[in-house]
Amino acid sequence: METTQISKQETFIGKEDLLNHWLGHRNLTRRVIEKFPEKELFEFSVEGMRPFSDMVKELLSIATPGLSGIVKRAEEPFSHDMNMTTKAELLAQWDKETPKIIDLYNQIPAEDFSKPFNLFGEYNFPIKDNILYFIDNEVHHRAQGYVYLRALGIEPPFFWER
């Protein structure tokens, strides 16, 4: 079996395109939150997993604080201390964070994307990898939300409609 390594590659996706890709995921995740009935958003789980509201709180605890740390070059510890108890509060916070994400992201020079940053003082990777982690983590938790919605008999939004 032959393997090929690429030592140097041109940019696959530009900074603006990556942000738009992420914002598409955020739009879809918001629609998943909207689909949940209030009670099930905070109480329903499968096989001991967390309720979807807790996953959403995690996403809110990572994206803006993580980008803020990158912009300020501050290795502040991760904090998951969010006290939101209604779907309206989660959605309002989600909407409040999106412009902050855009602003913070746009403050990161494209040439810094390959520079290392120790996210939350724990994850020392290039900035681009930290940003990809934010997106990957959201997709992962949104997929769990899809499983919950299907288990509740609710059709989730089409994943490709971002």
From TrEMBL:
Any one GO molecular-function label of the UniProt entry: metal ion binding
Domain of life: Bacteria
Binding site for a divalent metal cation: 141
Keywords attached to this entry: Metal-binding
InterPro entries from the UniProt entry: DinB (IPR007837), DinB/YfiT-like (IPR034660)
Family: Belongs to the DinB family.
This protein's name: Damage-inducible protein DinB
Organism taxonomic ancestry: Bacteria, Pseudomonadati, Bacteroidota, Flavobacteriia, Flavobacteriales
